[in-house]
Amino acid sequence: MTDHHLGTSANDGISSVAVGRSLTRDRPTARRREMPSRLKFLKAVTPWAFLLLPLGLLILLTYLPAANLVYYSLTSWDGIDKTKEFIGLANYHRMFTDPEMYRVLLVSVYYLVGAFVQMAIALYFATILSSNVRFKNFFKGIIFFPYLINGVAIGFVFLYLFRPGGTFDSVLGLVGLESLSRQWLGDPSMVNISLAGTSVWRYTGMNFVLFLGAIQSIPAELYEAAELDGANHWRQFWNIILPGIQRVVGLSFILGISGALAVFEIPYVMTGGGNGSETFVIKTVAMAFTHHKVGLASTMALVLLAIVLVVTWIQRKVFPDERAELT
User: N or C: the chain end with fewer CB closer than 10 Å?
Assistant: First the structure.
């Protein structure tokens, strides 16, 4: 009986130890089963936690003001009164029937032509300076430097450049072209050309950097193969460089059009919109803060946004993304 009881107690001890081991083995297994669900939850929540603040700021500072802009465009609000009288599409009707609105839009044509001129100049210098040229870093700095200067400072500098008897007239006199001197900012037929030329001088550096980076990203093997086939520099430009930077050209095209429509600081500083140099944005600002017609100014801002979106859509169709081409 004693041996039997000893064996039974021994078996019970062994079984209890086995049960304890099995329990300790089961606990990590249960934890392992729980961990993946926690990890899945953390993976799902973590991106939204990081995006919460940027999305909140985007809604607060972009989408909410845009919605208010749409609402203001349907009212005759003057920006001061608490009440906003709803007038429907009356502001849009005035926007598209007032000849003055079309006149200020036509001023943007000068800057649009200037945008194409600066793109051509930037592409020319980017093509040359992408090859082995002496002092190319020095010339890169000279071309890009005007883009780093504040637009207001550029406006004041060019005021002295274009003033009667100023720097530009002095340079014309030195080269024997003093007969070409005129009122560069006082003549309505020349003021927009002078202002667009100032814009070309300032923004050529930005397009230059874009084109230069795109050209330098083209593989050198393509140039070597073209040289083996006997292609000259002109052929290399048309068959290698221009197709290789097609998307950057499309981007510059969009920036040029949107910039031509949204010109403000240079004509505002240099002429204040006088002598027929008033741009669409200057007209919008004056309509809101000088004439106290915030509703009409909101309509003008929305029309400008619509034009930029349409141009962007056209650019997407002309220069589609690689992913769109693959699909």
Answer: N
